[in-house]
Amino acid sequence: MDILKKSFKKSIWVFHLSTAACNNCDIEVLELLTPKYDVERFGIKLVGSPRHADALLVCGSVNAHAKPRFLEVYRQTPKPCLVVAFGSCGCSSGIFRDSYSIVGPVDKVLKEEDPDAKIVYIPGCPPKPEAMIEGIVKGLEAV
Amino acid sequence: MSWLIYYIIFPGFIFASIAGLLTVWLDRKVSARVQWREGPPWYQGFADIGKLLYKEVIVPEEAFGSGFIAAPLFGLAAVTLAVTILCVSFFGMSEGFIGDIIVVWYLFAIPSIALIYIGSTSGNPLSSVGVSREIKLMLSYDLPMAIVIVMMALKAGSFSISGIMEWQRINGSNISNWYGIIAFVVAIFCIQAKLGRVPFDLPEAETELGSGILLELSGGVLAAYELSKAIMLFGLPMFLIILFWGKGIIGGVLMYLLIVVLLILIKNTNPRVRIDHAMKYFWGWMSGAAVLAAILAHLGA
Amino acid sequence: MAKKNNQKVMKNLKKKLKKDIIDIVQPRENRIYMRVKPEKAPGIVEYLFSKYKCKLCTASGMDMREGIEIIYHLAKEDENMIINVKTLIPYSKLEIESIGKKIKAFRWIEREINEMLGVKFKGHPDMRRLLLADSFPKGKYPLRKNFKNSDVTDEDYDYERSGI
Hints:
The complex is a heterotrimer. By secondary structure, chain A is of the alpha/beta class. Chain A contains six helices and seven strands, in the order H-E-H-E-E-E-H-E-H-E-H-E-H.
């Protein structure tokens, strides 16, 4: 089992989920796949279905529309999995904190469903690619 | 008894999965290099399979449980058997039997049928769209490939793998003639469609259908599917080597690398095609080229 | 003079809709502001849309302290001008006849004004929520002046209505 756990760190498949985001963070995710900051050398690739995913990249603060759907996607991801709260909107709600339709940042919504979920916080609006890579590396150490 | 050792250790399951996962790594590395990136390290294929075995398997409620789990394992067993029969004749360990090239081609069709089965029992409407595309694609590429196989067998005068290789050892390999080159081009495209790679990866369309047929697979079941795909990536170029080169091992390794690099370059330079374009392409141009090659083979060019 | 040419539309409207408009001004060459009563507004807008060949740009609503003012912005393309039809609906009777019954272009904007400001559109065929989530509590209208963000807490959301 130890070798399987070590191979978990060497290949993380990421599913990108956007809950009420302004789409700036969604575009910045693409930067990591470009030749300058290539993350495929760490074994990370983007997949099309949450059932194949090891990490959920949640952009945006969570909306009242998005909350039941986000929890449903989290339930359908096979455990063990990692949740990445991406950007200022994911960590706290950023400048949309007091809005009438924002229910809460990612960790407040997720603790209702699963109190010991593993969450990685990457702040920035949008985060710089170096910050993203550092967040991923720290997350891999904690798994 | 020795067949059991052939099936499990060499050249069966363990040898084929190691060779297949290294070929998958080669695919990702060359694709990354073509895009001026670094690629993953050499153990990436093994890490992917190990990671998938570590995760849990979720069976959805509307799915037909036992078939859902059994189908990829069945595909894996069939493709391992096909690669065993192929490599046993290629490495000269046993004689084989008459008609074994047809048996091998039909054993290679079983993973596609397993894929259709998985997609139908998933209980997801996106999977059923993928299933209909996979059925149409299977009907498309079988025709030119069947023409090519029968042409090579008739030219060699025997339907067994060792017979075809023996004929090529005496009369020169098939690829050094005009009909061989045309048939080789046809076979490369049919292989690309069979492996489900761009430009023909419609059933497993990643962002269009949310991974299509494979939408509901997770954990060990997905590991079985990925392993069968990797073994097919090793087995199908070997099939082409036997049909077109047929001589020793050193030349075989170089030919293997050539075929794999051609498959990678086709993948990196093309977009995904629609299903009606794919059917027109295989039944029109490719079948026509295969018939032309058959006529040239008969005339002796 | 340039202004003389364009008063043609204003004079035309004054002649056709004599009694219904409270007042009508043209402060610039390509703008006409018309103020009407809330009972007459849907009829005038329908007339402008169908017979007078105007197109709907949008409709905006604002909470004045005495009531809610709805402005219909209509564009008349051959004369290059925008005609604004203003009505002030008092808080005592927050209702107006719906134009979306007959003309499809007005349906969505009336849904939005209804959910954000609380104006009732009589006879609208499909009054669902447009922008707010289904789980947002009923009876609270976010774009009114007396709405504070602390009025809606986490317990007020009712996720049973969200359709999952």
